[in-house]
Amino acid sequence: MRLSDFIRRNVEQISLEWEAFAATCSPAADTMSGFALRDHIAQILQAIATDLDTSQSKQQQDIKSKGQTARTDLTDTAAETHAELRVGDGFSMDQLASEYRALRATVLRLWIEELPRGTAIDLVDATRFNEAIDQALAESIARFTKGLTRSRDLFLAMLGHDLRNPLGAIMNSAALLSSPNAVNEEAMKSAAAVIRRSATRMSELVTNLLDLTRTRLGTTIPLSIAPTDMTNVCGNVISELRALHPHVTVEFSALGDLEGAWDGPRLGQMVSNLVANAIEHGSKKEPVTIDVRGEADEITVSIHNEGVVDASLLIENIENPLVRNNGRQEGQSMRVKLGLYIAREILASHGGTLHVTSSQGHGTTFTGRWPRHGETGQTASA
User: Fold this and answer.
1) Domain ranges of the chain
2) Cα separation of 253 and 290, whole Å?
3) FRET partner for 371 with CA separation of 20 to 30 A, picked from 30, 128, 173, 259?
4) What is residue 345's three-state secondary structure?
5) Torsions phi, psi for 266 (to 5 deg)
6) What is the four-CA torsion angle of 160, 342, 191, 280, rounded to 10 degrees?
């Protein structure tokens, strides 16, 4: 019996054993569904069976064994896609590799058990199968390493980006306090409060860095859910940004029930990024407006400025935050991309979405929405 035929007939049984093994990969797998644990195993098995049925010369076998096979199809393989998802799920590289080791042992064990007693093992099939497993493992590890490196680089860039606003607010407030011109007691208290809030935010960002380092820098944003009032969240952000941009008018309006169980510091990070973007790219003569609405089922935050931005470019930036745009200054491009990307991911982690509209005569509006209740998610649209 050909091994390729055996694999096709027993995809479900092999998948069950794959799922059972993946479930032991703690802590990443502890909260994953069976569907997520299985991931692309059926497609990986199909690719292996197809490879077994493909004729191969000795020269081709030698090239493959040395990892020198040239790829003509640039479409992601199932093994590569699987690796990207495992990065996002928080698996380690050791756990990823162990999945393939377990898969190799499972298939060969089940195949041998099904062979009639005394039947010799087809060594060609066994060799080709091991080659196919090695190829899938190599593809997965290469993509896993790339994804993990990108995740680390992205988070460090996000950290540097988000430190700019509170650091700028501290510098401006410190300059005010050290001004040779006398300042009244109320102004001194206000500047000290801004410094205290901004330093707290910077501390939270550094804490996030340590947290993500300990969790192997996955691609999702962790949340700390607690009772939160969006009026207070927005008020703190506005105070910080007014200290950083004293000549810009920021108008705030709120309506409805704005209390709920969310990650307040993360939502403050989201609002800060969107408002900072509006201040930087909007009209200096018109105010930036923040409108927060609490509905029965969702919370909406809209940030509007009178500038016009190419909406398609903004959406592209959200999806590719570290890709440079030749048509813009590099620093400005990075700030726009990272700010919008961070805002989108924070909303996504709350089960929400980020949308943008921009046109001549109507300005630009970013609207973030997230459910008042329910489970958090990881997908968002823009």
Assistant:
1) 3-151, 220-371
2) 6
3) 30
4) helix
5) -65, -40
6) 90
Give percent above pLDDT 70 in the chain. Answer: 78
CB neighbours of residue 94 within 10 Å = 8
Q: Are 267 and 346 in contact (CB under 8 A)?
A: yes
Given a cut of 60, whether residue 302 has pLDDT beyond it is yes
From the list 155, 193, 189, 18, the residue with the least C-alpha distance to 98 is 18
Portion of the chain with pLDDT greater than 90, in percent = 35
The C-alpha angle 233, 237, 243, rounded to 5 degrees, equals 150
Do 220-371 and 3-151 fall under one CATH topology? no
What tokens does 241 get? 């940004």
pTM of the complete model: 0.51
Q: Which fold has domain 3-151?
A: Globin-like (1.10.490)
CATH class of 220-371: alpha beta
DSSP 14-43: HHHHHHHHHTTSTTGGGG--HHHHHTTHHH
Q: Is the pLDDT reported for residue 194 higher than 70?
A: yes
pLDDT in tens, 327-380: 444 444 445 566 777 788 889 889 999 998 888 878 889 999 999 875 444 433
- Residue written as tokens 């700030």? 335
Q: Distance (Å, rounded) from C-alpha 141 to C-alpha 152?
A: 16
Least confidently predicted of 43-52, 239-248, 312-321: 312-321
Helix/strand/coil percentages in the chain, nearest 5: 60, 10, 30
Q: How far apart are CA 19 and CA 114, in angstroms?
A: 21
Do 8 and 52 meet the contact criterion of CB atoms below 8 Å apart? no
CB atoms within 10 A of CB 118: 5
290: part of which helix (H) or strand (E)?
strand 288-294
**Comparing 19 with 377, which gets the higher pLDDT?**
19
